[in-house]
From TrEMBL:
Keywords from the named record: Metal-binding, Molybdenum, Oxidoreductase, Signal
Organism: Xanthobacter tagetidis
Class of the enzyme per the UniProt entry, highest EC level: oxidoreductase
Binding-site residues for Mo-molybdopterin, renumbered to this chain: N89, Y92, E93, C146, S181, R234, S245, A246, K247
Known catalytic reactions: L-methionyl-[protein] + a quinone + H2O = L-methionyl-(S)-S-oxide-[protein] + a quinol; L-methionyl-[protein] + a quinone + H2O = L-methionyl-(R)-S-oxide-[protein] + a quinol
Record flagged with keyword Oxidoreductase: yes
Role, per record: Part of the MsrPQ system that repairs oxidized periplasmic proteins containing methionine sulfoxide residues (Met-O), using respiratory chain electrons. Thus protects these proteins from oxidative-stress damage caused by reactive species of oxygen and chlorine generated by the host defense mechanisms. MsrPQ is essential for the maintenance of envelope integrity under bleach stress, rescuing a wide series of structurally unrelated periplasmic proteins from methionine oxidation.
GO molecular function, one term: molybdopterin cofactor binding
Full protein name: Protein-methionine-sulfoxide reductase catalytic subunit MsrP
Taxonomic placement: Bacteria, Pseudomonadati, Pseudomonadota, Alphaproteobacteria, Hyphomicrobiales
Pfam families: Oxidored_molyb (PF00174)
One GO biological process term: protein repair
EC number(s) stated in the UniProt entry for this protein: 1.8.5.-
SUPFAM superfamilies named among the record's database cross-references: Oxidoreductase molybdopterin-binding domain (SSF56524)
Family: Belongs to the MsrP family.
Length: 326
């Protein structure tokens, strides 16, 4: 049996509860005896091998790619190869491990409806392809930093979150946006794990959502995003830890109350609302002073706001002394 050293980030965010530690250990030890039985029982996998899996269906928005690159967002490091970034993901609805794609065989990217509600002039629901007609896609090179102290750099395709805020026409009383991921336990096996408060929820202040960096992502590497990256709609907030960047988003609720995020609900002592990247504030389980590049394994010092201070520092004026980083 091939045994290798576990790296720090392989004791993942999902280990935030003792139950999850037990579960992942059982998964590792059990070598999938239970999982094997589940596969046999699965009607989807019992279909002829020639039948196309729903998760492999072509994306109807493929013609929109590649989108023009916006050169305002440059990198200080090479782009992470897709072979690496697409096999080291966090998507707990599907897997508590990092190789998520194989657990997504039942995921379907269409139909996909996005709901905009709460403190807005006219709440609405819109299909993802109609939403794509109302915005224009561009490509941006962004760094991405997980609180587990690993990082990558990728070419996302998407549109500014500010454009969605404009479509929503928030009322003056709206101060925050809550983002919700999809719920479908038939598709996402871990949503049957009632120890977690599904759906995955994240939140931003309205001011953060309007910041130029807040980017709603539909694609990566010049094509529609593969499922494990959070297709067909996720967000990228490169100055915050990765857990703020919800995947598989189906709802944006404008509110006057600070949203309680998924991880905050699980373990408030470890995860807070702001989650701005800060090398000086250690997470209880991970120093944030440096990070490991998932492509090269090299470590580099972590930068305040993940190096995006020029764009976002102004959002936090006067808050620096608060313990706001988790
Ligand atoms: N719905 C949902 N969104 C999620 C997560 C998740 O488990 N579920 N994980 C988060 C975490 S912890 C990180 S680091 C990023 C990972 O994004 P990537 O797999 O594209 O690198 O997605 C975030 N968004
Ligand atoms: Mo993360």
């Amino acid at each position: 049996m091939h045994i290798r050293r576990r790296r720090g980030w392989e004791i993942p965010e999902s280990a935030a509860t003792p139950e999850a530690v037990y579960l992942s250990r059982r998964e590792a030890l059990g070598a999938g005896i239970g999982a094997g039985a589940a596969l046999l029982a699965s009607p989807l996998l019992a279909t002829p091998a020639a039948a196309q899996r729903v998760s492999d269906m072509p994306d109807p928005s493929a013609d929109l790619y590649p989108a023009k690159r916006n050169d305002a967002y440059a990198l200080d490091r090479p782009v992470t190869p897709e072979a690496r970034s697409s096999t080291l993901n966090n998507y707990y609805e599907f897997s508590y491990g990092k190789n998520v794609a194989p657990s997504m065989t039942r995921f379907q990217r269409r139909p996909w409806t996005v709901k905009v509600d709460g403190l807005v002039e006219k709440p609405f629901e819109i299909g993802i392809d109609d939403l794509l007609k109302k915005v224009s896609l561009e490509e941006r090179l962004y760094r991405h930093r997980c609180v587990e102290a690993w990082s990558m750099a990728v070419p996302w395709t998407g549109f500014p979150m500010a454009d969605l805020v404009a479509l929503a026409a928030p009322m003056a009383s709206a101060k925050y946006i809550q983002m919700e991921s999809f719920v479908d336990p038939k598709v996402a096996p871990n949503q049957r794990d009632f120890r977690y408060p599904w759906p995955y929820v994240e939140g931003l202040t309205l001011e953060e959502a309007r910041n130029e960096l807040a980017f709603l992502v539909t694609g990566i590497y010049g094509k529609p995003a593969p499922n494990q990256f959070g297709a067909p709609l996720r967000i990228a907030l490169p100055w915050k830890y990765g857990f703020k960047s919800a995947k598989g988003i189906v709802r944006f609720t404008f509110t006057d109350k600070q949203p309680v995020s998924f991880w905050e609900a699980v373990q408030a002592s470890e995860y807070g609302f702001w989650a701005n990247v800060n090398p000086k504030v250690a997470h209880p389980r991970w120093s944030q002073a440096s990070e490991e590049d998932i492509a090269t394994g090299n470590r580099r010092p972590t930068l305040l706001y993940n190096g995006y201070g020029e764009q976002v520092a102004g959002l936090y004026k006067g808050l620096e002394t608060q313990k706001i980083w988790y």
